[in-house]
Design goal:
Length: 94
């Protein structure tokens, strides 16, 4: 029992020393500094990026639909919707 109590006290003391060590302060300061740098870089979050990607995908689909309708109205393409629209330049996916 004495050895177990000694072991627990030793672990507690080590944890206290580590919590008060300069390494912990340095880590906290580095995290704050990096957060400031990232804020100044005007980066977007992954969630914002995914929302914009979905919006771009929807806009691209709508553009293809409108181009197909315009081509039909102008008489460049038959009104059969099962036929593919004319070839488009390649789009780079992100």
């Amino acid at each position: 029992m004495f050895k177990q109590n000694l072991w627990e006290d030793l672990n507690k003391k080590i944890s206290e020393v580590m919590a008060q060590s300069p390494a912990k302060d340095i880590e906290k300061n580095m995290r704050a500094m990096m957060a400031g740098v990232f804020t100044k870089m005007d980066l977007v979050t992954r969630e914002e990026f995914d929302v914009q990607t979905e919006l771009l995908k929807h806009t691209r689909e709508k553009l293809i639909e409108l181009e197909t309708k315009l081509a039909t109205v102008e008489g460049r393409q038959p009104a059969n919707p099962s036929e593919p629209p004319p070839p488009r330049p390649p789009v780079i996916e992100v």
